[in-house]
Amino acid sequence: MIRCDVLIVGGGPAGSTLAWALRDSGLSVHILDKRRFPRDKVCAGWITPAVVSALALDLDDYRRERVLQPVSGFRVGCMSGPLVETRYDGGPVSYGIRRCEFDHYLLRRAGAVVHEGVAFKGAEPGAGGIVVNGEYHARLLVGAGGHFCPVARFLGSRLGRSETVVAAQEIEFLMTPEQRAACRVDPELPELYFCDDLGGYGWAVRKGDWLNIGLGREDNHRLAEQVAAFWNHLRARGRISGEPPARFHGHAYLLYPHARRPLGGPRTLLVGDAAGLAYAQSGEGIRPAVESALLAAAAIREAGGDFGPALVERYRALLTGRLGPRRQRDAAAWLPAGLRQALGRRLLSSQWFVRHLVMDRWFLHRQQPALAPAG
Ligand SMILES: Cc1cc2nc3c(=O)[nH]c(=O)nc-3n(C[C@H](O)[C@H](O)[C@H](O)COP(=O)(O)OP(=O)(O)OC[C@H]3O[C@@H](n4cnc5c(N)ncnc54)[C@H](O)[C@@H]3O)c2cc1C
Fold it and tell me: How far apart are alpha carbons 43 and 251 in whole angstroms?
């Protein structure tokens, strides 16, 4: 039997951040991941400076062997309308990263014992802790396995059923010289295209010679067709050329206000997508994953080795203090859908609205300062 204090299932940003934040706590921390790193993850790969700061990332070290695309503004609009350009002075307001590189980097520096290629198969109570796969005994189990986290299922969540998910598909590829020459997407200015019914948005994010194109929606009705239509739309606008060089890959996630996942249970916590924490308007999930992990680490340190019910309550209090209560109502929900959509399309052509509300508040969350790194 392998014994540890904290066993984290999932080595994505949530799991690796938790391990990193506990690196000098005196607790022995192990991570299980069913994949071997570097591994791909379906994601646009856009992070905000708050993530860089909370992780205390050394950008010079990071960019030495990895893609790090500074972003200084955005082009935003409706599919059927013009794009509004917003530029910022004073340094990057976001960065484009490749998840296969980013997640690998974070996991390697986490300071935990990592068991790669090991899937969570099941758990049961053991003396003073939980036994996982009949092989690992932990005093505390943390589910950081993303949207389909098996620890969330172990706690009773009915994954994929009775949950309102955002379904998304994307493709990321290294452009050929011909594709590069035809690509009009500026690496410093990612492009966001809201669907005309405002049920989701598509993006074109260029990171150096890599191009990431995708679309996410709150309903997944004929998503593949809508994604194909979006590709053609970008081509018709002259932003890209040719056919997609590979298949689009899909994934799902939950938005924090609607998610019903628990935050923990007996000797168990959930962090990141496993707990359903992505921001409502943007779907950004890396920052909530990192922040939930830092808050979980703070609660674990405060617990002083007592991983009873008070730990989950403390974590819940810290997370709610940060993200607000779940089930916030959409301020415009009372408007008829047609009127909301017409209003939304109109607002998305306003320079002021796009800069101050869409970008500053919804996508960049500039109103909320970064969390301090733990340790
Ligand atoms: C198309 C798309 C685009 C997105 N774009 C962005 C973006 O640009 N910016 C942003 O901030 N967010 C974005 N997100 C959201 C973001 O990807 C997630 O919120 C983020 O990955 C959550 O991190 P995590 O560590 O909680 O989970 P994950 O990154 O999903 O990591 C979970 C880990 O758990 C492991 N695992 C799963 N099951 C098991 C098991 N049974 N046993 C052991 N290990 C297991 C997996 O292998 C994986 O390594 C996007 C999401 C999608 C779907």
Answer: 9
Q: What is the pLDDT of residue 159?
A: 78
Q: Which fold has domain 2-45+98-161+255-323?
A: FAD/NAD(P)-binding domain (3.50.50)
Helix (DSSP H) and strand (DSSP E) numbers for the chain:
11, 18
Ligand 1 midpoint to CA 242 (Å): 29
- 48 CA: nearest ligand 1 atom: 11
What is the rounded average pLDDT for all residues in the chain?
93
**286 CB near ligand 1 (under 6 Å):** yes
pLDDT of residue 332: 60
Q: Which of 87-91, 101-105, 164-168 has the lowest mean pLDDT?
A: 164-168
Single-letter residue type at 77: G
Q: Which amino acid is at 181?
A: A
Q: How far apart are CA 264 and CA 46, in angstroms?
A: 28
Domain definitions of the chain by residue range: 2-45+98-161+255-323, 71-94+165-253+335-375
- In this chain, the answer to whether the domains covering 2-45+98-161+255-323 and 71-94+165-253+335-375 adopt an identical fold is no
| CA 127 to ligand 1 center in whole angstroms | 32
Judge if the beta carbon of residue 273 lies within 6 A of ligand 1: yes
Which residue from 263, 262, 267, 290 is spatially nearest to 6, judged by alpha carbons? 267
45 lines ligand 1 (CB under 6 A): yes
CATH topology of domain 71-94+165-253+335-375: D-Amino Acid Oxidase; Chain A, domain 2 (3.30.9)
Residue 237 CA, ligand 1 centroid: distance in Å: 31
| pLDDT tens track for 196-205 | 888 899 999 9
Model confidence at 97: pLDDT above 60 = yes
| Ligand 1 atom showing the smallest separation from residue 170 Cα | 1
Q: Which residue has the tokens 């994601």?
A: 43
